[in-house]
Amino acid sequence: MKLLFRKFKNVFILSQRQRKLIFLVFWLSIYRNILLLCGSKKAFTEHILQNQKVKAVLTDGKIAIAKDITMAIHIVNNYLPWKNVCRHQSWQAVSLLLKYQIPFDYFVGIDKTKSIKEGHSWVKVNGRFICGRCNVKEYSVFFKV
């Protein structure tokens, strides 16, 4: 009970924007799963990036929003009852970064250190990871936006 009360109390420490982003990430996670079940192309990051380019300048305010997006994805990932793997997290991050007009880099790579090739995706803003933190040197990047 104390743990539940402590977690509930922590919600009030967060700013209104952070609470909003946590709600949005949670909703985007549900929405993407629905899109996947329906077989929609909108469930893939590459599809939502086709006609969307961010030409905005990165300001201190936008860097703060990007940090809040990172925090929201991390928090929601810890509490979801389903897997929210790197591909899902990247889709959520790209959706929010496009919404807030924050310039970003989106990567998809294949692990070159393992015999069974595994894919991984990650998003960076200003050289910092938003989601999918990894050792980039271990991956062969085959898609970058």
Strand content: 15-25%
Strand order in the largest sheet: 3-2-1-4
H/E topology pattern: HHHHHEEEE
Please give the share of residues in helix. Answer: 40-55%
Q: What count of domains describes the coordinates?
A: 1
- Average predicted confidence as pLDDT: 85
Shape: globular
Low-confidence stretches: none
Beta strand count: 4
CA-atom Rg in angstroms: 16 Å
Tell me the major beta sheet.
4 strands, antiparallel
Q: By helix and strand content, what is the structural category?
A: alpha+beta
Number of helices: 5
**Cα distance, first to last residue?**
45 Å
Describe the structure.
The protein has 145 residues and is α+β, with helices and mostly antiparallel strands. The protein has one domain. Helix content is 49%, strand content 17%. It is built from five helices and four strands, in the order αααααββββ. The protein has helices at residues 2-11, 16-38, 45-48, 60-79, 86-99, and strands at 105-111, 119-125, 128-131, 139-144. The N and C termini lie far apart (45 Å). The mean pLDDT is 85.
